[in-house]
Structure formats: C-alpha cells, structure tokens
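User:
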Amino acid sequence: MSIGSRLVQLRNKYKLTQSQLGELCGVSKAAVSAWENGVATPEIKKLLIIHSLFAFSFDWLIAGEGQMERTEPAANTSERRSMSR
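Assistant: Predicted structure:
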C-alpha cells in the first residue's frame, strides 16, 4: 500500500473530500488528488500538518508499519483549521 492509498483511507475515515483536506493543508484539490494517485508526494511540511490533524501513526502513513490509530485523540475541527493557516 502506498502513501497515496493510505491518505485515501485516512481521508475517508474522517469523511473529508479532497477539497476539504486540501483546504486544511493549504493546497488545492488537484494536489491532494496527485498525492492520492501517486503522481506526487506531499512535502514534509504538508505531511507534518496531516499528521498533526488526525489521530494516526506517522510510521503507518510513511512506511505502512504499525497501525493507523494513535493513542492520543486528533485535534478538533476548529483547531485543525487554525493550524493550517
């Protein structure tokens, strides 16, 4: 499984569209689509934003190791929006 397919899985878990995830990360829907389709890879800054937004293991996203879930909860939606600005 690739980073892109794990991003799709994560985005679907939180019921976000590509546009919504793009807005949270400060990128376009097309950028998210490119990540998910393996055409491009998110910059480390974007990976860190995605990691800080959701409750998942960074090792899981990057290497497919471990489990998706982390023990600490994800930031709430209002915190996510303020973090992406």
